[in-house]
């Protein structure tokens, strides 16, 4: 049975990890973030091919198809946490802990966010081009390509407010996944803790800015009639703003306040091993 670490310890651990990330040299953080963008994209690609290829299930039971899509997508998030890559949306919450404790400045947090977002963008766009488009996985002869088009069109057609609100819930669940992943002391426990919230936000159709940096550009490369401007204005900006609010305001700051350093730190268990 997986052993669970206490919430107080998790917040202290996140505080130290966030401060270590602030101290990283920009090239290291950028490369970590690029890897994170690639991993998220690969999880998305797997979900697209399997769920989008299940045309019979999609036609007869779209709810189960959404569950299938959501169940496969967390592969990328699990890889990010277990291998030490970096993800902008998680940083929205984790950086709030040392900021609340006045151990880092808002400028330092902003620098981490910008470098992380840039690296994730590069990684996701590269994966869309190299692993989805150049491999032929998104050619019109494949049954899941119309699924990709429909997914991207749905994201682009939603209003600013709808995408923003979906972005809030998406990153609340993503950051909850990171918190739960950190709570376990073994690999299987972390994987399960990460999988459930990520599966939930994907199956519900919420908006994750980094995932969308793969889904929508991949669809555009495959032939979707949409412009970069439409992507940025209609989806990327409101999704990113929603992700920031969901991670920082709804997860990071509440937990930083609930388990502030003034309430005392728990001792680290002797057999603790965290990613």
Explain what the structure shows.
By secondary structure, the chain is mostly helical. The protein has a single domain, classed as Glycerol uptake facilitator protein, CATH 1.20.1080. Helices cover 76% and strands 0% of the residues. The chain has 13 helices and no strands. It has helices at 7-23, 26-53, 55-60, 62-72, 75-83, 88-94, 96-100, 106-133, 145-157, 160-183, 187-203, 209-222, 228-258. It is globular and about 55 Å long. The two termini are 19 Å apart. One of its GO terms (cellular component) is plasma membrane. It is found in: Membrane. GO terms for molecular function: formate transmembrane transporter activity.
Structural class: mainly alpha
CATH architecture: Up-down Bundle
Mean pLDDT: 93
Largest sheet: none
CATH class: Mainly Alpha
**Strand and helix order:** HHHHHHHHHHHHH
**DSSP, total strands:** 0
CATH superfamily caption: Glycerol uptake facilitator protein
How much beta, percentage-wise?
A: under 5%
User: What's the number of domains?
Assistant: 1
Subcellular location: Membrane
Membrane topology: Multi-pass membrane protein
InterPro entries: Aquaporin-like, For/NO2_transpt, For/NO2_transpt_CS
GO molecular function, one term: formate transmembrane transporter activity
């Amino acid at each position: 049975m997986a052993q669970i670490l206490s919430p107080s310890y998790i917040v202290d651990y996140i505080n130290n990890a966030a401060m270590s990330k602030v101290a990283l040299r920009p090239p290291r953080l950028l490369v970590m973030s690029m890897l994170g963008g690639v991993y998220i994209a690969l999880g998305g690609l797997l979900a697209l091919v399997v769920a989008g290829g299940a045309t019979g299930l999609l036609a007869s039971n779209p709810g189960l198809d959404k569950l299938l899509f959501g169940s496969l997508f967390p592969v990328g998030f699990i890889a990010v946490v277990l291998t030490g890559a970096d993800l902008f949306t998680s940083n929205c919450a984790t950086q709030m802990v040392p900021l609340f404790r006045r151990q880092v400045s808002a400028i330092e947090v902003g620098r981490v966010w910008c470098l992380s977002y840039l690296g994730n963008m590069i990684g996701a766009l590269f994966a869309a081009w190299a692993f989805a488009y150049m491999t032929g996985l998104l050619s019109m002869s494949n049954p899941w390509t119309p699924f990709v088009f429909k997914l991207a069109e749905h994201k682009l057609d939603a209003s600013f407010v709808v995408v923003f609100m979906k972005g809030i819930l998406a990153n609340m669940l993503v950051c909850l996944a990171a918190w739960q992943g950190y709570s376990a002391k073994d690999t299987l426990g972390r994987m399960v803790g990460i999988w459930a919230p990520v599966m939930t936000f994907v199956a519900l159709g919420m908006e994750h800015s980094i995932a969308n940096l793969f889904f929508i550009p991949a669809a555009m490369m495959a032939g979707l009639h949409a412009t970069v401007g439409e992507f940025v204005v209609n989806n990327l900006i409101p999704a990113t703003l929603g992700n920031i609010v969901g991670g920082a305001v709804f997860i990071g700051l509440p937990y930083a306040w609930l388990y502030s350093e003034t309430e005392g730190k728990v001792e680290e268990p002797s057999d603790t091993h965290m990613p």
